[in-house]
């Protein structure tokens, strides 16, 4: 696989990595979910160079994750707002945060806690089956080729292969 051609791969993970697979894009998304919207605020929060930030924001706009909306004229300045496609990345971001909360915390504990607005309880995100509601683990899932995979592709061979789990 070529890094600059991931978006054309017949693999949903590869296509997603093409959009959010670098550290700056993920950190920009984190800031978006923390309600940061303006270029200078992203730069101040992340310490990223202007050139790199502009590049990553352009990419996220191109893939429809963010939309660029003017908030000032003379000079024109823009905010970057999560689209529905961007909002749909929330479970991914929360899964990464949860992994970090389990495996990367120091003696001070979690840097951020999440409260569910409806029940007012602090929570850990879990992934559940959309059909039965049971929690999902790698060992509890079989993978089958879908209609979007090329029958001669390595992904098809893997899906048909010996280990039918996602791990």
Automatic annotation (TrEMBL):
<dbReference type="GO" id="GO:0003677">
    <property type="term" value="F:DNA binding"/>
</dbReference>
<dbReference type="InterPro" id="IPR036390">
    <property type="entry name" value="WH_DNA-bd_sf"/>
</dbReference>
<dbReference type="Pfam" id="PF01638">
    <property type="entry name" value="HxlR"/>
</dbReference>
<keyword id="KW-0238">DNA-binding</keyword>
<feature type="region of interest" description="Disordered">
    <location>
        <begin position="143"/>
        <end position="167"/>
    </location>
</feature>
<keyword id="KW-0805">Transcription regulation</keyword>
<keyword id="KW-0804">Transcription</keyword>
<protein>
    <submittedName>
        <fullName>Transcriptional regulator, HxlR family</fullName>
    </submittedName>
</protein>
<dbReference type="InterPro" id="IPR036388">
    <property type="entry name" value="WH-like_DNA-bd_sf"/>
</dbReference>
<dbReference type="InterPro" id="IPR002577">
    <property type="entry name" value="HTH_HxlR"/>
</dbReference>
<feature type="domain" description="HTH hxlR-type">
    <location>
        <begin position="11"/>
        <end position="108"/>
    </location>
</feature>
């Amino acid at each position: 696989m070529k890094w600059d051609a991931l978006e054309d791969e017949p693999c949903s993970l590869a296509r997603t990595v093409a959009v959010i697979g670098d550290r700056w894009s993920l950190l920009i998304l984190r800031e978006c979910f923390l309600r940061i919207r303006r270029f200078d605020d992203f730069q101040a929060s992340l310490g990223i160079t202007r050139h790199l930030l502009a590049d990553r924001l352009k990419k996220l706009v191109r893939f429809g994750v963010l939309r660029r909306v003017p908030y000032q004229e003379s000079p024109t300045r823009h905010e970057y707002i999560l689209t529905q496609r961007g909002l749909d990345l929330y479970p991914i971001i929360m899964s990464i945060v949860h992994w970090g909360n389990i495996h990367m915390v120091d003696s001070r504990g979690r840097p951020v806690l999440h409260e569910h607005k409806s029940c007012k309880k602090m929570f850990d995100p879990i992934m559940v089956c959309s059909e039965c509601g049971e929690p999902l683990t790698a060992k509890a899932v079989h993978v089958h080729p879908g209609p979007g995979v090329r029958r001669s592709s390595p992904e098809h061979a893997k899906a048909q292969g010996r280990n039918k789990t996602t791990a």
